[in-house]
Write a sequence for this structure.
């Protein structure tokens, strides 16, 4: 007979007030911390929310290696973190690039490590991510969910920070020649979610991700065969095999812009197509101008 260990599921609930902060005692040493973590895994003494987010696994296992990439490889600099609220819902809207979505992961690390409240960014991902074995499971464990209006509104109304990259595959898979030129922002579904929940929208500009995998060609027949949106060719991949998949150590800057308020919008206007289009265009232009400004200040791709 086999027995299964299941985590406690904590339902999301709208936050009407900030919960009192409780300072947890620090573990005596890394070994003690690891033993405690393993014991909790074996006994089921850990919690996940209804989306599958596992904060303990994220902080103890997944964040440490990502933090090395963030601090030592890309040497990320963050500005405007005070624009991210200390509590309550908010929507962070970012540009997307880099062939692989490392920019999304680094933004999540930036929010957690640089923000005084060490908040978790609940990222909205494409369905391809959740159809991919192992990656889909890891995405759920780190708090990501499908990029759909229902999930976005549920998270935002529960007081979560939600991250969206509205360029999608058009942004992340664009050729190197189109770097830092924002692609179309879809139909503005993210704006509609923010309007319906009354949360601020925070434009976020990421500089440095465009150059980690300079995409010079796209093998479309191979991409179709594998069911991928594109199959990139870079100066090093697939020529150098697995070594070509190592990202270039560019210097990154992540800038969180001034919040755009949505709580003053009349409830009867939240579905107004012109309002949604106007806000989408305002956010896109804000990010594009921040990118141009940061690029003008940058002296070197690798030194910043």
């Amino acid at each position: 007979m086999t027995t299964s260990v299941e985590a406690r599921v904590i339902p999301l609930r709208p936050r009407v007030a900030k919960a009192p902060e409780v300072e947890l005692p620090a573990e005596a040493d890394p070994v003690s911390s690891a033993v405690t973590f393993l014991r909790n895994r074996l006994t089921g003494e850990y919690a996940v929310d209804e989306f599958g987010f596992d904060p303990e696994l994220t902080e103890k296992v997944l964040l440490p290696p990502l933090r090395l990439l963030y601090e030592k490889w890309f040497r990320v600099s963050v500005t405007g973190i005070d624009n991210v609220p200390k509590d309550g819902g908010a929507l962070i809207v970012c540009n997307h690039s880099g062939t692989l979505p490392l920019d999304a992961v680094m933004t999540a690390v930036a929010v957690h490590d640089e923000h005084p409240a060490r908040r978790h960014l609940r990222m909205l991902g494409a369905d391809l991510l959740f159809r991919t074995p192992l990656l889909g499971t890891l995405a759920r464990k780190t708090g990501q969910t499908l990029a759909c209006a229902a999930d976005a509104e549920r998270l935002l109304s529960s007081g979560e920070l939600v991250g969206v990259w509205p360029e999608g595959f058009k942004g992340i898979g664009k050729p190197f020649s189109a770097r830092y030129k924002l692609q179309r922002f879809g139909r503005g579904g993210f704006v509609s979610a923010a309007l319906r929940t009354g949360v601020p929208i925070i434009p976020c500009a990421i500089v440095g991700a465009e150059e980690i995998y300079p995409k010079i060609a796209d093998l479309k027949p191979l991409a179709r065969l594998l069911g991928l949106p594109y199959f990139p060719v870079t100066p090093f991949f697939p020529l150098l095999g697995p070594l070509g998949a190592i990202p270039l150590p560019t210097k990154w800057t992540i800038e969180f812009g001034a919040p755009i308020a949505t709580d003053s919008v009349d409830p009867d206007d939240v579905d107004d197509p012109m309002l949604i289009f106007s806000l989408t265009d305002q956010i896109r232009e804000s990010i594009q101008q921040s990118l141009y400004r940061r690029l003008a200040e940058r002296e070197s791709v690798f030194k910043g």
